[in-house]
């Protein structure tokens, strides 16, 4: 059986070394690298393609949520589990909205870390014990990620997909994917409708 290749992203060496030492006692898991910044996480995931990444929320330069968004923009199939000290439901639901497949508190038992890695690797979503209530209730309008808001603002200003792609330094295909997700989340089918949503929601006041 092939081992699950795991990347650790955390700027606290004691945390990284502790988690690595624990995971390496399990035959089914291989820690392939450890990085200390969000930017290094993005670059390493692109280069090494780990099966699962354990990503800290708070890292210097680029936080874990932004790093998660950038990774998923390049590879929608990437599997990222947020590893955090915060058990606030808002942190958890925000992480899930940004595309994380799991959320773990740093003080959970070793067995739960391994369980999370295995379940996320298998394509499931995993929330550690006590945080399951943070999932978005069925039927509630999904919240746009910061990247989707940036795309939406430009579309509402009349920019074409090509112009948005050039402005944000992403591919036209990525813009099209964002546009599709925005329309699905907001349940709005037309550009005029998106523009009206931006005006009514106050998004034009956001800096981007």
From TrEMBL:
One of its GO terms (biological process) is regulation of DNA-templated transcription. InterPro entries: CheY-like_superfamily, NreC/VraR/RcsB-like_REC, Sig_transdc_resp-reg_C-effctor, Sig_transdc_resp-reg_receiver, Tscrpt_reg_LuxR_C, WalR-like. GO terms for molecular function: DNA binding. This is Response regulator transcription factor. Residues 5-121 form the Response regulatory domain. Gene3D superfamilies: 3.40.50.2300. Signal peptide: none annotated. Pfam families: GerE (PF00196), Response_reg (PF00072). Keywords: DNA-binding, Phosphoprotein, Transcription, Transcription regulation. Residues 137-202 form the HTH luxR-type domain.
């Amino acid at each position: 059986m092939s081992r699950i290749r795991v990347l650790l992203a955390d700027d606290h060496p004691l945390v990284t070394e502790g988690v690595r030492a624990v995971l390496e006692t399990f035959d089914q898991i291989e820690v392939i690298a450890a990085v200390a910044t969000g930017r290094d996480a993005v670059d390493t995931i692109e280069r090494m393609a780990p099966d699962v990444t354990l990503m800290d929320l708070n890292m210097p330069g680029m936080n874990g949520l932004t790093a998660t968004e950038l990774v998923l923009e390049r590879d929608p199939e990437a599997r990222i589990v947020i590893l955090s000290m915060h058990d606030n439901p808002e942190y958890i639901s925000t992480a899930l909205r940004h595309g994380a497949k799991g959320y773990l508190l740093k003080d959970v038992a070793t067995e739960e870390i391994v369980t999370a890695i295995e379940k996320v690797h298998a394509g499931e979503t995993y929330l550690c014990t006590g945080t399951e209530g943070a999932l978005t209730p069925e039927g509630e309008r999904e919240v746009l990620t910061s990247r989707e808001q940036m795309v939406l603002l430009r579309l509402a200003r009349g920019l074409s997909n090509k112009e948005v792609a050039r402005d944000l330094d992403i591919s036209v295909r990525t813009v099209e994917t964002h546009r599709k997700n925005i329309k699905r989340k907001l349940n709005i089918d037309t550009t005029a409708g998106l523009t009206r949503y931006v005006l009514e929601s106050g998004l034009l006041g956001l800096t981007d």
